[in-house]
Amino acid sequence: MTKMNREIVVTEALNLLDEVGLDAVSTRQLAKRLRVEQPSLYWYFRTKKDLLAAMAQAAMAPHANAPLPTPEDDWRAWFLENTRSFRRTLLMRRDGARLHAGSTPTADLDRIRRKMSFLIDSGVPERDAQMAMLTASRFTVGSVLEEQADAGPGDSPDLPPDTPRIDHESAFAAGLSLIVAGLTQRVPT
User: Fold this and answer.
1) What is the pTM of this model?
2) For a surface tag, which of 14, 21, 106, 189 has the fewest beta carbons within 10 Å of its beta carbon?
3) Which of the 8 DSSP states describes residue 67?
4) 55 phi-psi bin (left φ>0, alpha ψ -120 to 50, beta other)
């Protein structure tokens, strides 16, 4: 029997995710990987949904540990880097965007409040700051979902082989620029 704790279970669940993808992650497969009986996992996670929430939180650690903005930071540069950091973190895991989608960032609420305060203190109207953070988050998750699902034009029988391949990085950068440009127009000078 493998010595277990909550952290080991989550780490192994994320390793399983990277190997088989979100659809194939199961408590049965995880128990087999840990060399334990499946019911022993319930000591740490009452439901698979609880396990997935812990996995999502752990997968977001690189972004959750990124430096918070300082008063000297330019809000536009910070907003761009914060969103890029979120994207990089989602891309670190197979099906990272799917794992994250629909999760509630309860462990990150203080950081979110501090980010919002920074934007507001920088002159972004409160409602616009809220909507910009939500829009950037959903845009990023959607972009990464598409990127992680992209089989490439040559791999899809529905598309002609000469269909141009999407440069996901450039498309993301262009969309993010549009969000920041729109928000900039809302900030009083």
Assistant:
1) 0.89
2) 189
3) P
4) alpha
Place of tokens 């501090």: 114
Residue 155: band (very low, low, confident or very high) from pLDDT cuts 50, 70, 90: low
Chain Cα centroid distance, residue 3: 30
> Distance (Å, rounded) from C-alpha 125 to C-alpha 107?
25
Out of 3.40.50.620, 3.40.309.10, 3.40.50.2300, 1.10.357.10, the CATH code matching 6-185 is: 1.10.357.10
Residues 59, 11: Cα–Cα separation, whole Å = 9
Choose among 124, 172, 131: nearest CA to 148.
Answer: 172
pLDDT tens for 65-116 read 999 999 999 999 999 999 999 999 999 999 999 999 978 767 688 999 999 9
